[in-house]
Design brief:
9-stranded mixed beta sheet, 2 domains, 15 helices, Rossmann fold, Dihydrodipicolinate Reductase, domain 2, alpha/beta
């Protein structure tokens, strides 16, 4: 097989994937699509500098018709599944950025599109490949801390100051209608990937809203934290917390407690981790602190920046899986793993709206469990939910935010300014 011809849909978040593909020995970047021309101009400059032939498109239909073996979806986070389903049915392999789906119905449709097409689907949950979680996976698979009993994942990222740059002041931008537990896979995904366990129940919580700058749309939407308490299929408990809580720098932190020890990443120094392994005598063992190094394709990985190098692995393992290579087969996150991560956030929000009631997490690998959710389009997006529209937050009414605040946000974006 020759080089895999890959297109990228979304040149903002897709920039790191574009850089990886432009340098990958087994891939050929052939097309990029984005509605914002200046981003495409940046792609064209990169292509010219590297001597590459890359077509750029502002229109998705033209991009869709380009000759491509595979497509990276780096478009809006709530629109990955519909585009992914269409591309899979057209015979293209798909790598999806975070998140895999917006509704339970999309989860079912996406899984069945993968199964029916026979094409590769990869989920680009890059936090699973950061140095700490990736090293945790290696050591957990070696049995060093035993079987998981409890785990924590934390992704705290206050985006209020950069809200103009990431929403462009668009009133209906997905971030402005995102519920508190939607963006859960940065915190929960590494726990599931490290341990290989599946979620079976979730209880959701939403913190109170920070009213420090409650007169601004960008602050109100992102000012609550989302929490998922997840029961895993072996009885272990995992806590996932994420959102725009106040902390600088933001927190990317993971802890795994097993029957023979524990592992955790450093809360303030993301490159360092600690591992405790109990010895032959109870409560006595070895504690080690160190900075893990990439243990797969390390030379190529270290040449690629972007989320601590983890962006390289999402794309690399996707290409490797298409080629049928063992590393891709093992480490690329498939559609079932992606959906397991994503639907915990969907169902956790239903738990919140139901007074924090426990909600069963279905195993959508089982075809018998899919019918219950096949037409379940409940979400906070009016265009998708229709008569099953959910409130964006139990704490405030997003419709009460005046258009003038979105206009102010857009003005800041056009002027290249952050919110203050």
């Amino acid at each position: 097989m020759g080089k895999i011809k890959v297109g990228v849909f979304g040149a903002a978040r897709g920039q790191t994937m574009i850089n990886v593909l432009a340098n990958h020995p087994d891939a050929e970047l052939v097309a990029v699509c984005d509605k914002y021309r200046p981003l495409l101009d940046n792609v064209q400059k990169l292509a010219d500098d590297r001597g590459l032939k890359v077509n750029t498109y502002e229109n998705f239909e033209n991009f869709y018709n380009h000759d491509m073996d595979a497509v990276v979806l780096a478009n809006y986070a709530n629109e990955h599944a519909p585009f992914g389903v269409r591309l899979l049915k057209s015979g293209r392999h798909v790598m999806s950025e975070v998140l895999p789906c917006e509704t339970m119905a999309q989860a079912v449709e996406l899984i069945e599109a993968v199964e029916e097409s026979g094409k590769i689907y990869a989920y680009a949950e890059n936090y699973c490949y950061m140095s700490g979680p990736f090293e945790m996976r290696r050591r957990y698979e070696n049995g060093e801390i035993g079987e998981v009993q409890y785990a924590e994942g934390e992704y705290i990222h206050d985006c209020s100051s950069i809200w103009p740059q990431i929403t462009y002041g668009e009133k209906n931008h997905w971030r402005n209608r995102m519920w508190s537990t939607f963006y859960c896979t940065h915190s929960l995904g590494p726990i599931l990937t490290v341990t290989g366990r599946r979620p079976v129940q979730v209880v959701g919580f939403e913190t109170n809203t920070n009213t420090k700058r409650g007169d601004k749309a960008m602050s109100r939407v992102m000012s609550a934290g989302g929490i998922e308490m997840v029961t895993l299929d072996n009885g272990a408990i995992a806590k996932s917390v994420h959102g725009g809580l106040k902390r600088e720098p933001g927190s990317i932190n993971y802890e795994i407690y097993g029957t023979n020890g524990m592992m955790e990443t450093h809360r303030w120094d993301g490159g360092t981790m600690a591992v405790y392994i109990e010895g032959e005598k109870l409560c006595r063992g070895e504690l080690a602190h160190y900075k893990p190094e990439p243990f797969i394709t390390s030379e190529l990985a270290q040449k690629t920046s972007g989320h601590g190098g983890s962006d390289f692995y999402t794309t690399h393992f996707f290409i490797e899986k298409i080629l049928g290579n063992p590393e891709g087969q093992k480490y690329s996150i498939d559609v079932y793993g992606a959906v397991d991560m994503g639907i915990c956030g969907i169902l956790a929000y239903r738990s919140i709206l139901s007074g924090n009631a426990p909600i069963r997490v279905p195993d959508l690998r089982d075809k018998k469990q899919r019918d219950e959710y096949r037409n379940d389009c409940a979400c906070t997006n009016p265009a998708v939910a229709k008569d099953k529209l959910l409130p964006v937050s139990p704490h405030f009414d997003i419709e009460s935010i005046p258009d003038s605040e979105y206009e102010q946000c857009r003005s800041s974006w056009l002027d290249g300014k952050n919110a203050e």
